[in-house]
Hints:
By secondary structure, the first copy, chain A, is an alpha/beta fold. Chain A has helices at 2-5, 9-38, 53-56, 73-82, 98-109, 130-135, 170-174, 186-202; strands at 41-45, 87-92, 113-118, 139-142, 152-156, 160-164, 178-183.
Amino acid sequence: MILTVVSGWRGLLAVAGLSLTVEGLYYLIRYLKRFRERRPQVLFFPAPVTCVRPLLLSSPGHCSCSLSHRESALSCLTRLLLSARRSLDVCVFTISSVELSNSVLAVHGRGVRVRVITDSDYMALAGSQVGAFRRAGIEVRHDQDANYMHHKFAVIDGLILITGSLNWSAQGIFGNKENVIIIKNTDVVKAFIEEFERLWNEYDPSKYSFSPKS
Amino acid sequence: MILTVVSGWRGLLAVAGLSLTVEGLYYLIRYLKRFRERRPQVLFFPAPVTCVRPLLLSSPGHCSCSLSHRESALSCLTRLLLSARRSLDVCVFTISSVELSNSVLAVHGRGVRVRVITDSDYMALAGSQVGAFRRAGIEVRHDQDANYMHHKFAVIDGLILITGSLNWSAQGIFGNKENVIIIKNTDVVKAFIEEFERLWNEYDPSKYSFSPKS
């Protein structure tokens, strides 16, 4: 029936034109939908003091503590870290937040490859979670000079970048005015992965040369 | 001639279909081009020590100092700040970089509306450029509590967001491992404008209440 109706070159041209239009629109809508899903997300801090312990349980559980368990910038960040399935690369000046370090430990405990880069001065301060990471078998590398390794980013599965002003500390999360952007743009994520690999290589302890003190 | 060839409903359908395809493709290409221009840009620090003085001259000029004048992450940041035509909103924990504060002063000197939010503790330290801003007539507001106003962002003309880990200090620019992302995504820029306006309002000095010390 259709073939009869569209017989002749003009009919074929019409069908070709219309099918191209429909197909073009389909791809445009699909592209825009994917683009919408990939647009950056912003979190502002301080976050309200909430408990994120239920998110860390391997099976859905309940926490009976007196804190609120509602959604917050912290729970969003926690969910993101916990979403890692293949790799979690953390490159943060300060890591003293028990909530975020518990997320990192939980991801490592599931067999995900976790690597941490941090600042040598701040990792030695009280409250730093670097010791807990190392005891759990997570490799941690740090800078070797007087300047700061001042980045505050993480890359999840090589696909999602978390970056901003936020140090991973209780004061950063619950006290300070801070921001975090979650970015899935391939070029941006790639640039941060390259920066991570560059620093990971630069801070490789097998490359250190220690001179014995005279 | 065309009208003769495409006579009949199938011909009209063909023309309609093809013109829709061409128009759809035109808009798709235009959209993708605009999207490409709007994709985020990333700068990593430390930057090489370069002189950006020529960028600050009102007419193209030459600097005979011994420093390099080549392009760098600092010159990119300087150009961006200097591109402000209508407004420059700066919300940065530390502002002690002479290079970046000279850019802010130059923008203010051209009659652009400049507003600065910073942290009360760090604005009092030696090297802070807040005094120079205030002497030039730039309004500076700051937090009022023990926590930090730890953001490190600026919005240019309400259109371009500069944000990241970088404090506007010489150590941040020339010493530390830092990052800055330049974002033009409307939703993200809007979120940071709203955060700026919220803090600008919260830190309005006319709202302070000072109790005389007993």
